[in-house]
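Bug #77: duplicate submission created two jobs. Keeping one. Sequence:
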Amino acid sequence: MVYDTLAEYQKIVPDALNTGRMGMNRKPGAEIQKTIQQFAMQYRKVTYTNFLTGGRLNTYLAGIGRQAQEHL
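Kept job's structure:
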């Protein structure tokens, strides 16, 4: 089965915007990381699995959380 991003855009866009708003509203880094992880698990399954099995998931999520905090 080929993943079709356009078929799910009605869910992806609001979820992505809500994740971005969390950073803008200065939510705790752990909360942002959890939301990003959930987003990746739902919409970027292959990327998530590669990071998880490669032992890089926590490092990746921590880096995303740091970037979000730096942009504020």
